[in-house]
Amino acid sequence: MPLKTDSEYIESLRPLKLQVYAFGEKIENVVDHPLIRPHINSAAMTYRLAHDPMAEELVTATSHLTGKKINRFTHIHQSTDDLVKKVKMLRLIAQRTGTCFQRCVGFDAINALYSVTYEMDQELGTNYHERLRNYVTYIQENDLMVAGSMTDPKGDRSLKPSQQADPDLYVHIVEKNEKGIVIRGAKAHQTGIVNSHEMIIMPTTALTPEDKAYAVACAIPTDAPGIIHIFGRQTNDERKYGEIDQGNAMYGIVGGEALTILENVFVPWDRVFMCEEYQYAGLLVERFASYHRQNYGGCKGGVSDVIIGAAATIADYNGTAKASHIRDKITEMIHLTETLYCCSIACSAEGHRTASGAYFVDPLLANIDKQNVTRFIYEICRLCHDIAGGFIATLPSEKDLRHPEIGKYVDKYFKGVASVPTEDRIRMARLIENMTGGTALVESMHGAGSPQAQRVMIVRQANLEFKKNLAKALAGIKVCQ
Ligand code: SF4
Ligand code: FE
Fold first, then answer.
1. How many domains does the chain have?
2. What digits encode the pLDDT tens for the residues 215-244?
3. Is there an atom of ligand 1 within 6 Å of 255 CB?
4. Which of 46, 97, 100, 374 is catalytic?
5. Predicted local distance difference test score (pLDDT) of residue 238
6. For 397-424, what is each residue's pLDDT tens digit?
7. Nearest in space to 111 (alpha carbons), one of 79, 58, 75, 141
8. Which own/partner pairs from 402-408 qualify as long-range (CB within 8 Å, at least 24 positions apart)?
9. Domain interval for residue 174
């Protein structure tokens, strides 16, 4: 049954038996828990818009495996047009949610594995690609949400996986038998994991022969025996028990990340896509990272559209909208946002066909895109804070606004222009606080890899020798071929 609705997606989470802990307690009802529900609502938008005639062209695709209409988040890119549509889709969804909707990580994982397993099979005679195709068909047919699980806890960053004092600091294979493999370790910062049906494990770094036990890619249900999820805290998350103070009560902040423990988890062979082929770990990481970095000018572009709208609205409410410096700051925010979007579109339009038939982005431009996000989002948020004013950091709570005795003072002294209700001004301030605060900023810095991870790939992809030869030719220096 391809193409679930948003409510079918939410209901499909209820029978899952995930072990989730937060604030030191086991959560029995994950779907309705106030810490988690906003993230579920956000992911549900990826399902809802597949049924919206205005968005359908971007949010659905035709499966090259079955010929059926499917949700784009389960699609394998068949052209540069598919890559461009992905970016446009992400911007559209982010404009509706104002935050992360999580489903891109698994989307990028199936696409990265699609071309890498094909190339592995060609060179090694393995049959990983066929398994992957069967798995992707299963995901498409059931319209499942898949988390992408790449980042290991990493322990001492100066040591390789097999050199760590504790071997579990990177996920590794502890047993192989005729039925499958057993893996152990943990994956960190797991976006959307507690509201995903499945998770795809991938290595987090290039590997050497000594680390071959760490070369593992496979798919597991998120509620498989041996899996425990410890939900992460966010800035101001105790506010999730109220409404206005949250800022974006419906969709929350970023992706609802968790630490996922894998305590001797069994994976049958038909769900294993890499098993000790250490020489392909680096390639898989690069493909996945480039696909995920492609996204950021789309999703952060859409988030920034909302921040720009919030900045312009609060300027209206404050009575400052006509000041020339405010208009100039908003212009700068638009310029930065569209620059991010340009990079995402460019790396998609400049994509190419891989041997598997699936399309891959231009990795240099994708890495430039994410590198810009690590800077421009901070600047966009800085400008928004500048425009909004200090009251976004010192506002009393919703309970004070509603209080029978002191509520009238909050209402009176937080008033901006006379025509706008104080509550509207407070709501907009809280939205800004939510979207531009600590948790959201750090996600822009480290989501899809830290800035240094991009710089390593940028210099590797840039063909410096070619540029040196250009300069030498113009300077009249003989170039040795
Ligand atoms: Fe998708 Fe953006 Fe969230 Fe990453 S941060 S999962 S690209 S919405
Ligand atoms: Fe992310």
1. 2
2. 999 999 999 999 999 999 888 888 888 899
3. yes
4. 100
5. 84
6. 999 999 999 999 999 999 999 999 999 9
7. 75
8. none
9. 6-294
